Amino acid sequence: MIPKNKLKLALAIVAIFCTNVVIGQVKKTQPKQHYDVAAFLYPAYATGDPRLRPFWPQGIGEWETVTNMQQRFPGHYWNRQPAWGTVNEADPSVMSMEINQATKHGVNVFIFDWYWYDGRPFMETTLDSGFLKADNVNQMKFYLMWANHDVVNTWDTRLNKYHEDNVIWTGKVSRAEFEKICKRNIEKYFKLPQYYKIDGKPVFMIYDLPQLITGLGGVEQAADALTWFKNETKKAGFPGLELQLTMWSINVNYSGFDGGKTKNPENAFVKKLGFTSATHYQFAHFVNVDDDYMHILDGVKKEWARIDTTFELTYYPHISVGWDNSPRTGQSAVVKNNTPANFEKALRMAKGFADAHPKQAPLITINSWNEWTETSYLEPDNVFGYGYLDAVKKVFVDGE
Questions:
Q1: How many other C-beta atoms can be found within 10 angstroms of the C-beta atom of residue 87?
Q2: Domain count for the chain
Q3: CB-based contact 100:136 (threshold 8 Å)
Q4: pLDDT in tens, 289-348
Q5: How is residue 51 annotated by DSSP?
Q6: InterPro entries from the xrefs (predicted)?
Q7: What is the reported pTM?
Q8: Looking at the domain assignment, is residue 262 inside a domain?
Q9: What CATH number does residue 270 fall under?
Q10: Between the CA of residue 151 and those of 37, 164, 206, 235, 268, what are the distances in Å?
Q11: 208-232 per-position pLDDT tens digit
């Protein structure tokens, strides 16, 4: 006679086995779908970077704009406070904590806003001194979005109220400087194991196409420079360059391009320049954000469909948390009803788009990890706590 406890164990094993048998075959457990959830990271929340002090003299970067909001606009409705405090994101121990929180909640790629002004990099300390020196940096990937726009008085809250729009630094670069930038990024960043690649190709995103074209001397010259960039990337041992466009109207409706008789001048223009993929940076670039979040999502879905049928490049879906630029200016268009629950619905919409395009990388971009002064951030605060991060976790980690 089999002892009762051993009989129960045997029956339990048989029951487990039987639940995985389908018509005489062992049922294979399907692997969970992987997604590359990439959040833009604005590197202005750094302490001790001397190049930030002309805009934020307290030495804490743009946290200064966040913390003195009520002082500048007493009684203003915007009174956000970071749950982690005004941390120095250029500190590797702080970034280690943020990497841990990001990956725990399903964000596994940071897209660093990357700047180059006055012949040298700007706001690079968060990436170099924080992220890349974090003890858990191997848990995440990153890539660069070259934020090549002009710098005006917007960042400086002492001056932006005058609306002078003085150009402090231009985002335009010459061909010689463009080559310097590209060679530097290939050697310094592309070759790192943490750099995000698609099919082995480093991803490099460009924010402001008219600025690039004007600086290089025209469309033909820009196309030649970008071809050179791709070839240099190949010479460095990569199969190519994933050249990513920031998709918004100023970047695809360039007046200096002669589309000829083509029925689709936008696509012809983008194709000529050699862009192979695109995503958005912010909903504010293509829909009216002074609206209810769910209505905004209707417009976003229509725009994705338009891009899908208009362009030959690969489009990666983008979700913005919200928009409210009033910390800088005192007034702004404001996204309404962008609760974590509605943000979760947006993420499911992006996940559905990715699932419907199985031949492309499962990349989804989010604005953003920490755009506090544009009120579009995943980091926890005094209003929703970890609500936005928990929404990402529900969709991409828990699979709820």
A1: 21
A2: 1
A3: yes
A4: 999 999 999 999 999 999 999 999 999 999 999 999 999 989 999 999 999 999 999 999
A5: G
A6: WbsX
A7: 0.91
A8: yes
A9: 3.20.20.80
A10: 29, 12, 16, 33, 30
A11: 999 999 999 999 999 999 999 999 9
Domain that holds residue 264: 36-398
Question: In which residue are the tokens 């005489």 written?
Answer: 24
Name the helix (H) or strand (E) containing 250: helix 249-252
**Lookup: tokens for 359:** 């031949």
Residue with tokens 């990497």: 99
Sign of the dihedral defined by the CA atoms of residues 70, 387, 300, 146, in that order? positive
pLDDT (tens digit per residue) in 77-136 = 999 999 999 999 999 999 999 999 999 999 999 999 999 999 999 999 999 999 999 999
Cβ neighbourhood burial of 302 (10 Å; 0-12, 13-18, 19+): exposed
Going by their DSSP bridges, the two strands 197-198 and 36-41 should be labelled as unpaired
d(CA 238, CA 94): 32
> φ, ψ for residue 362 (rounded to 5)?
-80, 55
Task: Note whether residue 20 is domain-resident.
Answer: no
Of the candidates 144, 322, 323, 360, which has an alpha carbon nearest to the alpha carbon of residue 246?
144
Helix, strand, coil share (%) of the chain residues, nearest 5: 40, 15, 40
